[in-house]
Amino acid sequence: MDNDVDLPGRAAPRDGRDSRWERHREERRTALVDATIRAIRTHGAGVGMDDIAAEAGTSKTVIYRHFDDKAGLYRAVASRIDGRVVGNVGAALGGPGTPPADTRELVASTVDAYLALVESDTEVYRFVVNRPLVDRPLTDDPVGGTVDQVTDQLTGLLLEALRSPATDPSRARTWAIALVGSVRAVADDWLATPEADRAPRAAVVDSLTDLAWHGLAPVLTARTATSPTTGDAPTPPTTSTL
Fold this sequence. Notes:
By secondary structure, the protein is mainly α. Helices cover about 70% and strands about 0% of the residues. The protein contains 9 helices and no strands. The protein is globular and about 60 Å long. The termini are far apart.
């Protein structure tokens, strides 16, 4: 039987040229995102498509061929930054099994990881948050996706720190959302402050950590003070700042 004859129900073999073309397209998309980030750093968050095309050494038509439109290019840049944020915060949080006594330091590390990215790549952060290229609402909000991933990581940390199967996960998630939201809001205000009047990053980290810790410490302290042999439930805190 001729091996080149198609049989019913048998998928046609994939042409090697298709795979090479897909790799080429992915490499080209990566290079265009790199060029966009360089253009943002050079021209600021309000960079235009002409500046991006010039940095990439191509035309806007070619860029749209790879990303469909400006929103597609924005999503690709946001996805790149999303990976950095989630990776940095994940590294700061560490793995499971972290002793509760170290939780305050880990909260501080989480805050610092976020603010460090904001400080080191200010214009790129502004580009992602302010979306200057996007002229319509996005149903798939990249920033919201980043917030959700960081919130999930922090929720896991808080549940691990409490080390109690009776702890309501929704309560830990509420604390995580409050912390992540406050960090983002403070970061935006911090960037809006003239650099000459801007507090040092370390001072902002300390302030946010103190705010969070005064809310979390009573719960964590009550949990660690509970005798593991008696099974007594931890005393709920009387006040909370989160």
